[in-house]
């Protein structure tokens, strides 16, 4: 592998940190080392930085500053949202609605509640990965506490009808959580316009540091007709207004905030640039590589996401061969890419097991150039051809 020419196209798994973010984190690692809960001036300075970051992060989704609760990850934010609502409202209901294509951070957290007599409905999706709004409305019962549907899918990039889901949740007096880890900073989000009560995000998907996330909690967790609707799931000190104990990672959060600032300024330009590169790759591959198909929706998808199916070969082999050519991609989600089970997302959109095995996710980023895209389009057909030559499945089909 030629390190100098390595092309990183796995930005949905994680992004490289933006150099401007690295600078900001470095500055705060040196200067903002005080404990934000301490009374002395060094601690107070950390506290002020923290509150400024809260304002910045809130502004990206038109939220109030005090409704942002920093966490250690998107996974932790999902856990607090789901488990926190479930445990606070056991006398009110025991039913949660979600979808069959959620990230494991949501799926496994909801399933865990089955041990506590909770019931859940995982709504099916169509061939593009979209839930059906009528089925959602039918699934709501008087025991339903929460709808948790992701904003955009991490594997196929499909963007759900979030506004309509928010309206249904509001109409039936049910809380609405969305895992926006893949969408936050990539597409515009307004929690008020979309009727979102709870939203999870993670810094490392938008060129910020790993191990920093946030949960938006509307009105600090108080709702008309509900009273307090969420409680902490971890106990310790009173950090993050008793919602998430543990000494606050101020330098990491400062990096998150810087990443948000940049995303706000550059989002419109990035959407345009990445959509153009995305569609160039999609159109070229579908036209030039036989037995290839696009997974996910043709237009209702994240600007940086591409997911192809290639018949007769394994996604794992494509990823490894492309890696040898100096290109990083993935098959399925990064968290499950070490498993040989077919992706639950691809099965949910109706692919057969062998089709799901032949998937390749290409996720573009801020630093992706047209020359890198051309390099991919030069190497990919050779990799596919070489693997198909060796494939018993391809021989069987001839
Ligand atoms: N939700 C989605 C949709 C994701 O893509 C991911 C990460 O891949 C997560 C949650 C987990 O986020 P984190 O890595 O910050 O725990």
Describe this structure in words.
With about 400 residues, the protein is an alpha/beta fold. The protein is built from twelve helices and 14 strands. The protein has helices at about 20-30, 40-60, 75-90, 105-110, 135-140, 160-170, 250-290, 315-325, 345-350, 355, 370-390, 390-395; strands spanning about 5-10, 70, 95-100, 120-125, 145-150, 175-180, 200, 215, 220-225, 225-230, 290-295, 305-310, 325-330, 360-365. The strands form four sheets. A seven-stranded mixed β-sheet has the order 2-8-7-6-5-3-4, sandwiched between helices. Strands 11-12-14 form a three-stranded antiparallel β-sheet. A two-stranded parallel ribbon has the order 1-13. Helix 8 packs across helix 11. Mean pLDDT is about 95; it is low at about 335. Bound molecules: pyridoxal-5'-phosphate. Pyridoxal-5'-phosphate binds near residues 73, 75, 105, 179 and 202.
Descriptive tags:
single chain, 12 helices, 14 strands, binds pyridoxal-5'-phosphate, seven-stranded mixed β-sheet, three-stranded antiparallel β-sheet, 398 residues, alpha/beta
Quick description:
With 398 residues, this protein is α/β, with parallel strands linked by helices. 40% of the residues lie in helices and 14% in strands.
Output mean pLDDT: 95
Provide the spatial order of strands within the biggest beta sheet: 2-8-7-6-5-3-4
Report strand %. Answer: 5-15%
Number of helices: 12
Classify the secondary structure makeup into a structural class.
Answer: alpha/beta
Count of strand segments: 14
Q: Main sheet?
A: 7 strands, mixed
Distance between the termini: 34 Å
Question: Roughly what percent helix?
Answer: 40-55%
> Unreliable segments (pLDDT under 50, ≥5 consecutive)?
333-337
Rg from C-alpha positions? 22 Å
List cofactors, ions and other ligands.
Answer: pyridoxal-5'-phosphate
Spatial shape = globular
Order of helices and strands: EHHEHEHEHEHEEEEEHEEHEHHEHH
